[in-house]
Amino acid sequence: MTPSVLTNPRAERVKAVRALGRRSVRQRSGRFVVDGPQGVREVLRFAPHTVLDLYVDGAALDRHETLVQLARDANIHVHQCDPAVMTALVDTQHPQGIVAVCRPVDVPVADALGDDTGFVVVLAHVRDPGNAGTVIRSADAAGARAVILSDASVDLYNPKVVRSTAGSLWHLPIALGGDVAELVAACRERGRRVLAADGAGSTLLPDADLSGGHAWLMGNEAWGLDETTRALADDVVRVPIHGHAESLNLALAATVCMYASAEHNAQGPAS
Amino acid sequence: MTPSVLTNPRAERVKAVRALGRRSVRQRSGRFVVDGPQGVREVLRFAPHTVLDLYVDGAALDRHETLVQLARDANIHVHQCDPAVMTALVDTQHPQGIVAVCRPVDVPVADALGDDTGFVVVLAHVRDPGNAGTVIRSADAAGARAVILSDASVDLYNPKVVRSTAGSLWHLPIALGGDVAELVAACRERGRRVLAADGAGSTLLPDADLSGGHAWLMGNEAWGLDETTRALADDVVRVPIHGHAESLNLALAATVCMYASAEHNAQGPAS
């Protein structure tokens, strides 16, 4: 059987994928795009049932043979396409020749919160796609139970967020929406202490109580957490700044906090 | 006295500043550009003697009055310029109306290594400007004694590196050059243990010996440290990955390692 090859960059199918670069189209259609072999591999490994279509150009078909086979085994429709079609599919500077169209994977907030063990991360009004994606990747690495993005945050399915997660989008539960006060209340109801991470915090990270289930509340990259939001937390914790730096950026501060929690978990419950 | 205002975007002086976007021109002239109020403020605070000229447009002159006064007090020539000249001075998407032309601030490797206390960071072949700048910012925040960039690393005075340091460029000693093997040998001669940070490390970060003076050796963002380089180190340390993430990016891994050292320092010498 000779597979048919997509050759027309102006085909309706191609335009429909390209349009998924816009948030409104993603929301209306309930689809988003995963661009590049790393993301495609992780969604095929961790959530193959959410993959609707796979697009590959000739070079990628050879280079990523195993991935393509994985998709075929999962009965996913694999469309071979010309490089010109690939360029038209996604708005990327360096297309990598392999693109998947997928359904969302976010879960309800209640499911993300799970029980009261370990730690979760709540991102309040995080707007920069790279920061949001990087924090999700760090949360995965540090062993967070889940990540929750408050409303007024960047869209989880923004192509830059998806890329910055480096596949972690499919590795842990991620929930969307709710205002920050509601999310804090939900964490508390589940028996999680809420620790706001903020440069204005009075508790230094090494002195913070990381025993028991908790939630890290992380603020916007530019203005942090406002006073009202900080007041909702059980404690406001700051990463110590030893030199003359004004602060750490959001992703770095979040990662240092989460690894402190991970280290505490690894040591087991305090005696 | 009415200050003269630069109005011609094609003036030789303006072209000469713009040309500092190129590494070869920076090296030949021994000058580089600091773009935006944060960098300008930090260089004026920490190394005013290295500032040769300050360029401000009308809006920035009002908005950053204190900065401009600081420059005038230090006898730095302040050039007021039209917005069109500002746009011509630097290759930035969003010019912030204030630009300084400065002399380098790097120090010899021997000075950066200092004595054998605390920790330093050696960046081996780090190529991405944002990563290099961010690690310098983190090193500052974590209290590193110095940062050393091996040869074949990105240019410290690349505008994107300068911007990503968020002012930390002037907060701690930074040295340039030397191949990695020489730098490792120099660290050892000063009594510093060398810890390579690498996902292939056999020692987990919480188990690493961070007592006494040491140097963190960080590899390239894409390929890490090669086997030969890892073999030079006293130990190869990896940040634990608890979830399904493949790795942390360079800046995040480096920050977690440096904060582990900082925390160890804060607790004082082990009993």
From TrEMBL, chains A, B:
Residues 33-108 form the RNA 2-O ribose methyltransferase substrate binding domain. Keywords: Methyltransferase, Transferase. It comes from the Bacteria. Pfam families: MRM3-like_sub_bind (PF22435), SpoU_methylase (PF00588). One of its GO terms (biological process) is RNA processing. One of its GO terms (molecular function) is RNA methyltransferase activity. InterPro entries: Alpha/beta_knot_MTases (IPR029028), MRM3-like_sub_bind (IPR053888), Ribosomal_eL30-like_sf (IPR029064), rRNA_Methyltransferase (IPR051259), SpoU_MeTrfase (IPR001537), SpoU_subst-bd (IPR013123), tRNA_m1G_MTases_N (IPR029026). GO terms for cellular component: cytoplasm. Gene3D superfamilies: 3.30.1330.30, 3.40.1280.10. CDD domains: SpoU-like_rRNA-MTase (cd18095). The keyword Magnesium does not apply. Belongs to the class IV-like SAM-binding methyltransferase superfamily. RNA methyltransferase TrmH family. PANTHER family: RRNA METHYLTRANSFERASE 3 (PTHR43191), RRNA METHYLTRANSFERASE 3, MITOCHONDRIAL (PTHR43191:SF2). This is RNA methyltransferase. It comes from Flexivirga endophytica.
